[in-house]
Amino acid sequence: MKYCKVCKSIFKDSDERCSECGKKLVPITDINEPVRLCIVGGTERALLCGLLDDAEIPYLENNTYPQGLANEIVTGYDVKLSNINLTVPFSALPKASELLSSVETLNNPVEPMMDDIKAHIEKLQGGEVKEEEKSMSPALRTTIKVITAILFLLLVAFVVVGTDKIMEIIKGLFGG
């Protein structure tokens, strides 16, 4: 999966440029990368934001038109409230897309790619685990286990010897 760093829209791997802004697409390498869920406004925005809050899905709201006041003057519509770009973490996109689909008046632009999105999330999550496993070789793992066992035995010996010394001091205090 690829996405546009400017407008946060996601695309298939075969795409090279964003269809909205023309910028070069980059691969999604982090499951927490913010990606666009949809552009929404009005009561649908309030409803969808409430659903995302209830599902504890983090999201950001950005105005899609930075020149909002000029557009508002020309069109007469409050574009600051009617064209909000909702972004969610890439890993939360399937769940957020399901919530988006429950709002009947909104179209779901990411629904056609959902199988690819889920596969890419699994690939990224699997990659993180494999990197952790690669960071420790079997020889290093065995060495750490041996050192840990020796330290544990030293701790037990220290507790036993320390307890004997404390008991000698207590006996000495009470004349025993």
Structure description:
With 176 residues, this protein is α+β, with helices and mostly antiparallel strands. It has two domains: 2-134, no CATH class; 137-176. It is 52% helix and 13% strand. It has helices at residues 42-54, 68-75, 79-82, 93-101, 114-134, 138-173; strands at 2-3, 10-11, 26-27, 34-40, 60-63, 84-89. The strands form two sheets. It has a three-stranded antiparallel beta sheet, with no helix packed on it. The chain has a three-stranded antiparallel beta sheet with strand order 4-6-5. Strand 1 (2-3) and strand 2 form a beta hairpin. 19% of the residues are buried.
Helix-strand blueprint:
Blueprint: E1 2-3, E2 10-11, E3 26-27, E4 34-40, H1 42-54, E5 60-63, H2 68-75, H3 79-82, E6 84-89, H4 93-101, H5 114-134, H6 138-173
**Shape call:** elongated
* CA(first)-CA(last) distance: 78 Å
Proportion of residues in extended strands:
5-15%
Number of domains: 2
How many E-type strands?
6
Number of distinct helices = 6
Poorly predicted residue ranges: 129-133
Helix % is: 40-55%
- For the largest sheet, list the strands in their spatial order: 2-1-3
Oligomer: single chain
Q: What is the residue-averaged pLDDT? A: 82
Q: Structural class, from helix and strand content?
A: alpha+beta
The major β-sheet equals:
3 strands, antiparallel
What is the succession of H and E elements?
EEEEHEHHEHHH
Radius of gyration: 29 Å
